[in-house]
């Protein structure tokens, strides 16, 4: 199979670099376009309702919450643009974006909207009750994405398993 459009779902965990490097390797092999994506969960909360700041339903937020959200989004913008510059330095076509809200839904939606051939994302390795109660972004994306999905197993997960 040939991949021409690869959506890379990144978070700021220790696995982010591993996922990004895997995406670079595959994109170079297939001369594919990359779309780097991050879903921002603000202060551990799903703020899809607050995304009015960016053009949807407007809800009033306290000025301190607005300032904090703006600071986090500025940080995410800088972080993603850094990855985009690295991909461009490798000779790859790259776009990036971020949204505020629940990651699995946004990843699925972005893959569909951008017409991705492949989604690449990491896995934190939650098992048992933690996965049941906290959910698994990778599990959701594998089951509901409109295209193939590559789940990158990071080194941190391997070392965590050895400790159990």
Describe this structure as you would to a colleague.
Belongs to the universal stress protein A family. This is Universal stress protein. Residues 3-152 form the UspA domain. It comes from Euhalothece natronophila Z-M001. Keywords: Cytoplasm. The protein is α/β, with parallel strands linked by helices and 164 residues long. It has a single domain, classed as Rossmann fold. The chain contains six helices and five strands. It has helices spanning 16-30, 63-89, 103-114, 128-134, 137-144, 155-163, and strands spanning 5-9, 33-40, 94-100, 118-123, 148-153. A five-stranded parallel sheet has the order 3-2-1-4-5, with helices on both faces. Helix 1 (16-30) links the parallel strand 1 and strand 2. Helix 3 runs parallel beside helix 5. The radius of gyration is 16 Å and the shape is globular. The protein starts with a strand and ends with a helix.
Q: Which key phrases capture this entry?
A:
single chain; 164 residues; alpha/beta; Rossmann fold; five-stranded parallel beta sheet; 6 helices; 48% helix; disordered C terminus
Determine Rg (CA atoms, Å): 16 Å
* Coarse shape: globular
Average pLDDT taken over every residue: 81
Q: Helical element count? A: 6
Our measurement of the CA-to-CA distance between the termini, rounded to an integer number of angstroms, reads: 37 Å
* Largest pleated sheet: 5 strands, parallel
Low-confidence stretches: 48-58, 129-135, 157-164
Q: Would you give the CATH topology? A: Rossmann fold
How many domains is the backbone divided into? Answer: 1
CATH class category = Alpha Beta
Extended strand count:
5
Q: Oligomeric state of the chains?
A: single chain
CATH H-level name... which superfamily?
HUPs
Strand content: 15-25%
- SSE string, helices as H and strands as E: EHEHEHEHHEH
- Secondary-structure-based class equals alpha/beta
Sheet with most strands: strand arrangement: 3-2-1-4-5
Helix content: 40-55%
CATH architecture: 3-Layer(aba) Sandwich
């Amino acid at each position: 199979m040939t991949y021409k459009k690869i959506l890379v779902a990144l978070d700021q965990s220790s696995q982010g670099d591993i996922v990004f490097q895997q995406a670079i390797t595959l994109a170079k092999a297939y001369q594919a376009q990359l779309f780097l994506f991050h879903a921002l969960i603000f202060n551990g909360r799903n703020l899809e309702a607050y995304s009015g700041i960016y053009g949807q339903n407007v809800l009033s937020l306290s000025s301190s919450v607005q300032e904090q959200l703006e600071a986090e989004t500025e940080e995410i913008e800088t972080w993603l643009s850094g990855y985009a510059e690295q991909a461009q330095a490798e000779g790859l076509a790259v776009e990036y974006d971020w949204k505020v809200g629940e990651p699995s839904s946004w990843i699925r939606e972005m893959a569909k909207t951008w017409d991705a051939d492949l989604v690449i994302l990491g896995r934190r390795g939650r098992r048992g009750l933690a996965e049941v109660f906290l959910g698994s972004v990778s599990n959701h994306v594998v089951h509901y994405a409109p295209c193939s999905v590559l789940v990158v197993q990071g080194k941190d997960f391997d070392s965590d398993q050895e400790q159990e």
